[in-house]
């Protein structure tokens, strides 16, 4: 059975969708058009990582209240082994940093992953609810299909969302630990966020009759803070969500600039296989609207093995120790005990 659970930010209700048939497999983001259903998109569409839609027609949809779940004392939380390759990350960092320092790119995003073997398989719905409780400001999603496998996501980043009137998106970049009061952002973080903000504005303006921008401002995401600029826009006549997604994804927040060249560089030189990390997912034209979020703060679940993903923007003034620490902060908390 194909299924998805999702909880919108700040909501006390979650939705559970299930679909007994075969999902739709699409060849491009534009094919989303005006479809309705739950979308699961990879960083890059390929035979191994298809673009999958659980269509609304034939879907079973339930809404439930979010209960409080405590998993800290469960035996299933015990970690038997942990695998990661810091040498591979360091080698990747050198390639990415050299490329931005030479001026080939304004920014590149480098990701890494960590594989954990747990004593027991987690209870998926209970784990989802635990993350709803721990990430109240995030879009929390858990989905499973034969084509994608099982993924849990707690994302702070909107790709495209229904708003009144029209649609909304955000530019989200820059990372620092959460602090009370007014945060002091580094020039590196401010520059990184400005690149994403400029890209978003220049991308949606030709597709829209009107664009309203608000920001940047500081926002909290779990134990971190980011810089965020909000955009509200009215799509021009004939412009679908599929058209907008195809132009936006992947944004410089998860890929780099210029986009096409950065995507090719990431696919060629990054040793980490992203799969559905830094793609996007969520309901499209269903359950009250569209809420597509970038697949960040996520893990892939295979039985009792969890692979956790994180990434960070590489700029000319980046250094490997700081970037490693940033990805450490971003990795969602699998250490539940």
Account of the 3D structure:
The protein is an alpha+beta fold and 337 residues long. It has six helices and 19 strands. The protein has helices at 86-101, 124-134, 187-204, 241-248, 259-269, 320-330, and strands at 2-7, 13-19, 24-26, 37-41, 51-55, 60-65, 79-83, 107-118, 139-145, 149-155, 158-162, 167-177, 208-221, 224-235, 256-257, 280-284, 291-294, 298-302, 305-314. The strands form two sheets. Strands 1, 2, 6, 7, 8, 9, 10, 15, 18 and 19 form a ten-stranded antiparallel β-sheet that branches. Strands 3-5-4-16-17-11-12-14-13 form a nine-stranded antiparallel β-sheet. Strand 11 and strand 12 form a beta hairpin. The chain is globular and about 50 Å long. The mean pLDDT is 92.
| CA-atom Rg in angstroms | 19 Å
Please work out how many helical segments DSSP would assign.
6
Structural shape? globular
Q: Would you list the SSEs in sequence order as H and E?
A: EEEEEEEHEHEEEEHEEHEHEEEEH
**How much is the average pLDDT?**
92
Give the N-terminus to C-terminus distance in angstroms.
31 Å
**Class from secondary-structure proportions:** alpha+beta
Major sheet description: 10 strands, antiparallel
Instruction: State which percent range the strand residues make up.
Output: 35-45%
Spans with pLDDT under 50 lasting ≥5 residues?
none
Number of strands: 19
- The portion of residues assigned to helices is 10-25%
């Amino acid at each position: 059975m194909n299924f998805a659970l999702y909880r919108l930010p700040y909501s006390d209700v979650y939705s559970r969708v299930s679909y007994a048939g075969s999902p739709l497999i699409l060849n491009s983001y534009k094919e989303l058009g005006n479809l309705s259903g739950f979308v699961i998109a990879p960083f890059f569409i390929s035979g191994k990582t298809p673009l999958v839609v659980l269509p609304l027609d034939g879907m079973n949809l339930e809404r439930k209240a979010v209960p409080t779940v405590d998993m800290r004392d469960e035996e299933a939380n015990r970690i038997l082994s942990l695998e990661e390759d810091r040498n591979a990350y360091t080698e990747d960092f050198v390639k990415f940093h050299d490329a931005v320092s030479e001026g080939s790119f304004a920014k590149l995003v480098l990701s890494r992953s960590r594989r954990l073997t747990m004593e027991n398989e987690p209870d998926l719905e209970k784990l989802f609810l635990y993350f709803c409780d721990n990430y109240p400001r995030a879009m929390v999603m858990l989905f499973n299909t034969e084509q994608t496998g099982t993924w849990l996501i707690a994302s702070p980043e909107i790709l495209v969302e229904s708003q009144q009137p029209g649609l909304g998106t955000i530019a989200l970049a820059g990372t620092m630990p959460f602090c009370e009061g007014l945060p002091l952002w580094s020039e590196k973080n401010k520059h990184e966020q400005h690149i994403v903000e400029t890209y978003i504005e220049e991308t949606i303006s030709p597709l829209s009759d009107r664009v309203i921008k608000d920001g940047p401002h500081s926002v909290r995401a779990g134990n971190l803070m980011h810089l965020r600029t909000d955009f509200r826009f009215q799509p021009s006549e004939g412009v679908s969500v599929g058209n907008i997604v195809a132009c936006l994804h992947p944004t410089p927040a998860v890929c780099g600039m210029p986009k096409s060249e950065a995507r090719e560089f990431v696919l060629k030189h990054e040793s980490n296989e992203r799969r559905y990390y830094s793609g996007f997912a969520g309901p499209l034209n269903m359950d009250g609207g569209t809420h597509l979020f970038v697949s960040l703060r996520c893990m892939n679940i295979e039985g009792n093995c969890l692979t956790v993903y994180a990434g960070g923007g590489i700029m000319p003034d980046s250094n490997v120790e700081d970037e490693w620490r940033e990805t450490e902060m971003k990795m969602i908390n699998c250490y539940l005990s």
